Amino acid sequence: MSGEKPDRNLAIEIVRVTEAAAMAAARWQGRGDKEAGDQAAVDAMRTVLDTVEVAGTVVIGEGEKDEAPMLYNGESVGSGHAPEVDIAVDPIDGTRLLAEGRPGSLSVMAAAPAGAMFDPGPCVYMEKLVVGAEAADVVDLDASLQDNLDAVARAVGRDVRDLTVVMLDRDRHEEAKRQVRQAGARLQLITDGDVEASIVAAWADRPQVDMLYGIGGTPEGVITACAVKALDGVMLGRLWPRTDSERRAAVEAGYNLERVLTADDLVRADDCFISCTGITQGNLLRGVSFDRRGATTESLVMRSKSGTVRVIRARHQLHKLSRYSAVAY
């Protein structure tokens, strides 16, 4: 008998964290209050995260872009006992989706060995390209979208017109939209939530999307890299300063703004963990549903070292949880 015994899978433990955040946030679906929904998710995530047996440091937190009051970069989380891990959180990927009652919002958390996660510094946005395992060796962020779509089509054995590209619907993407349409591929525009879209693009079991492309959050990119590593897809990224002052700050801090970053650059470890739980119904996961008995959640739990991907559907008896839990479900 060779190999090592199965070891601890943190993803199985952190799913409790994303489940709690999703259930707390789901009460705010469609109520038009982004801040209240985000606060509920952050509070629930913080409370349950402190019960996980890790010495965690939040490397990717809510940060400057969302101006959230908790789970900030550098915060210590978990029980304080080994192992030491980097933590990336997005209590709600798609706060506007939740507030408006739209599909696709998730609660997401990732973990990796301490020092493994990329620190984006002043750059809160990056250019991203994500594809699945079949096309992992053929894409190039320096190539045109036409060339990349042609290469993906050859790799997956389909016509370009049968490929679907997902992209955030932003003014900055007008040229990219034009190129995708000119290439003949189908285009799916989303208002928010590129973590969900990236995972769908990388996961062969969710064949609706063949590529994600566009400029989105760098923190979300680091989280996505954990998922892509588990799914054997590929993620390419390049930092995208929004302003001249942000560009100067990045250069002065030593960042190479021309460098193409891979998932291995964004998470420098072979053993990383990610859990995401659906809040509103989406292409990736079912949303939280409530009934007189409690709540039902659906989560995606992944570990890159083993490549194990689990979909966990859980029933929660809220009348029992409310007897002892500090989380306001």
In brief:
With 329 residues, this protein is α+β, with helices and mostly antiparallel strands. Helices cover 33% and strands 26% of the residues. Helix 7 runs parallel beside helix 8.
Could you please describe the fold and organization of this structure?
The chain is an alpha+beta fold. Helices cover 33% and strands 26% of the residues. Helix 5 (145-156) packs across helix 6 (174-183). The longest helix has 17 residues, at 10-26.
Amount of helix: 25-40%
Parts with pLDDT < 50 across at least 5 consecutive residues: none
Task: Give the C-alpha Rg.
Answer: 19 Å
Main sheet: strands, sense, barrel = 8 strands, mixed
Number of strands: 14
What's the overall average pLDDT, rounded? 92
| Overall spatial form | globular
Percent strand: 25-35%
Measured between the Cα atoms of the first and last residue, the distance is 47 Å
Instruction: Decide which structural class fits the backbone.
Output: alpha+beta
Order of helices and strands: HHEHEEHEEHEHEHEHEHEHEEEEH
Q: How many helical elements?
A: 11
Outline the fold blueprint.
Blueprint (H helix, E strand, L loop, with lengths): L9 H17 L7 H16 L5 E6 L2 H4 L9 E2 L6 E10 L1 H5 L6 E8 L11 E7 L13 H12 L7 E5 L5 H10 L2 E5 L3 H9 L8 E7 H14 L2 E6 L4 H9 L8 E2 H4 L6 E6 L10 E3 L2 E10 L4 E9 L1 H7 L5
Parallel strand pairs: 1-3, 6-7, 6-8
Antiparallel strand pairs: 1-2, 3-4, 4-11, 5-8, 5-9, 9-10, 11-13, 12-13, 13-14
Helix pairs in contact: 1-2, 5-6, 7-8
